[in-house]
Input
Amino acid sequence: MKIRAAILRRSPVKGPYAESMPLSIETVELDPPGPGEVLVKISAAGLCHSDLSVINGDRPRPTPMVLGHECSGIVEELGAGVSDLKRGEQVVMSFLPTCGHCATCVDGRAQLCEPGHAANGAGTLLSGARRFHCDDGAEPFHHSGVSAFAEYAVVSRRSVVRVTQDIDPVHAALFGCAVMTGVGTVVNTCRVRPGQTVAVVGLGGVGLSSVLGALASGASRVVAIDLSEDKLALARGLGATDTFVASDPDVVEQVRAELNGGVDHAIEMAGSVKAFELAYKITKRGGKTATAGLAAPGSSFAIPAVNLVGEERTIHGSYMGSCVPPRDIPHYISLFQRGKLPVDKLLSSTGPLDDINAAFDLLNQGKVVRHVIRF
Ligand SMILES: NC(=O)c1ccc[n+]([C@@H]2O[C@H](COP(=O)([O-])OP(=O)(O)OC[C@H]3O[C@@H](n4cnc5c(N)ncnc54)[C@H](O)[C@@H]3O)[C@@H](O)[C@H]2O)c1
Ligand SMILES: [Zn+2]
Ligand SMILES: [Zn+2]
Output
């Protein structure tokens, strides 16, 4: 079938994106779903910093590629062998297909699925297939097995989570990346207990989801840190108890003084080594520093080895919020519906596919938390 899709023809591309137009809206041929695959009509797709990182080269991926990995949609057609979904059901996509059989999947760590990561790195579906064809002969790669910036997507059944019909598709889309990663890092990676203290460094859609996750987990103090005063104000509005400007020269001393030596869990959600170092410095003795930020390849950080040991510190990477998507996405949606996780407040704006390049400028400038494309 012929569909419209936003294709990144080359990378890296510099902004402003409304001028350089890294994504071209093209009509492409989409194959029907193969065995174990599903055709989904995309309802809504959010713009995440990880898409921006593919455009600006911080996260190298093969091109041409149909970007987008945070979305909701409706099941349109089932490939051979898919019997546990029905046409018309609402789904949220997860940005890592999980095979269910590899060593890490059977160990309960779906977020590390080996074939899933290999397929995402290669820009294919879990089966190894590519389903897009351009008139000029190009066969665009798939982004994270999803390729959400398109009217329809063919994806592995393993990329799809059935969710309730009873949620606005624009809100549902946010659960595919920002909420799964942000809340999951608090709940699964850090296992925050009621009464503990949490700091989040970097307040985009992912970091603010962590703020909401920490509040829902009963943290006694939720500290929000960013370079932008607007983001701090937003975090206070969501319920953060303390806010600090990351660029203040004495921010570490301020946090440590206010929080009795630091926080139990400091979570880096900016995708920057500077932000990670700040998170490490404000973690208290015996505490955990977690990071889901995806810094540019080649970045590294240095920490004083002796306090890692003497203070029994933990450093923990977090991919996909250490989530099992079919377990966690419906649960987080249910928390949202009961008013415990007001992620609708992370929605800054919506717009059509045709305006996607200008919308990436807004994300790049920190002017939106989540902008969602409506189809
Ligand atoms: N690990 C995963 O599974 C996963 C999933 C999704 C996104 N990510 C990554 O998470 C990060 C956040 O994504 P997002 O979409 O929320 O991004 P975003 O661009 O919306 O937000 C990033 C925020 O970090 C702030 N920031 C930048 N440098 C900072 C610093 N030195 N100190 C404090 N704050 C700083 C910015 O002002 C901005 O508010 C990105 O690196 C993204 O690639 C990882
Ligand atoms: Zn994302
Ligand atoms: Zn697996």
About this structure: The pocket of nicotinamide-adenine-dinucleotide (ligand 1) is lined by residues 48-50, 53, 177, 181, 201-207, 225-228, 231, 246, 269-272, 274-275, 292-294, 318-320, 363, 366 (CB under 6 Å).
